[in-house]
Amino acid sequence: MTDHEQLVRLLAARSAKRGDFTLASGRKSSLYIDARLTTMSPDGQRLIGRLGLQALRDSSWDADAVGGLTLGADPIAYAICHSSADTDRPVKAFTVRKEPKAHGTAKQVEGPFARGDRVVVVEDVITTGGSAAKAVDALRREGAELLGVLALVDREEGGREHIESLGLQVHSLTTASEIVPHIR
Questions:
Q1: Neighbours of 40 (CB within 10 A)
Q2: Whole-prediction pTM
Q3: What is the pLDDT of residue 158?
Q4: Which CATH number fits the domain that encloses residue 116?
């Protein structure tokens, strides 16, 4: 089984649920994907790190750093950062707060991010693209050079198109239509 197939099955077994749910976007859905149950596990981190780093390379995104809106993006960014550590082109990780801190340095982007860094925004699950768009806005204000958006799961509900309308390419490691047939 390939890493991609393993990731799809892991997400289906751990993270995907059927029922009546209200998503972060406010939409109602019969499918909920709590990606953190996979992204915060050792085997999920290993797979996501390898696949995420390969996706960056395959997309020709020469990123200095990866990250996105906390909390969903954090473990994905850390997994990619860790997987890149022993390569000839390590990638830093950062976190985008939902709002700037009200104390201390009042930063919204945390970690070893620097103005002018070439960055890829990561997202756990894209539905409407709102979380990724919020991270993109914050990073543009901070002087990042945006290369694209990397999603763990694209729910295929218009979020990709919303992000592309912002002038960014989107790459997803998996899609809802790949995961759904494997839900038990």
A1: 14
A2: 0.95
A3: 95
A4: 3.40.50.2020
